[in-house]
Amino acid sequence: MPELLIQRVEICYQQAERFFDRAFPRPQVSFKLRGQKAGVAHLHENKLRFNLQLYRENHEDFLRQTVAHEVAHLVAHQVFGDGIQAHGQEWQLIMRGVYELPPARCHNYAVKRRAVTRYLYRCPCPQSEFAFTAQRHALVGQGRRYLCKRCRQLLAYSGQTRVE
Hints:
The protein is of the alpha+beta class. The protein has helices spanning 2-20, 52-57, 59-80, 89-98, 134-141, and strands spanning 28-30, 39-42, 47-50, 117-122, 130-132, 156-163. The strands form 2 sheets. Strands 1-3-2 form a 3-stranded mixed β-sheet, with helices on one face. The chain starts with a helix and ends with a strand. This is SprT family protein.
């Protein structure tokens, strides 16, 4: 399925080359993007990363809008330089003028959030509970200490977890 996405990247570049009457170096394309972002353009590395899960779930719009959105970032950077805003007038010009698409900053794809484990810490304050991330919990295991902002006592792991 990524073959169509790569073809769409090429089509977007060909459109930009006709519009600006110049050649653009093709980017490295990666599908190692997860989470809420549909795509990311790395300007200085000339690299595009796409979220395959969101691509599979929103195939048609992703090809039309998201791919053009990310290519437009690289093209804008190569045409106008470093001093432009990510979704500024130069990027918008490319979205409207080259791709004839609305310059939408964000997608509205449904994103399935994965379950996250929180580690519950307590202090002597009544009704106190602090939910730590796995990373912060690991730091406690390495000797880092956290204090309650109200009573200034050490937060202690309760032995309980919560899945959110």
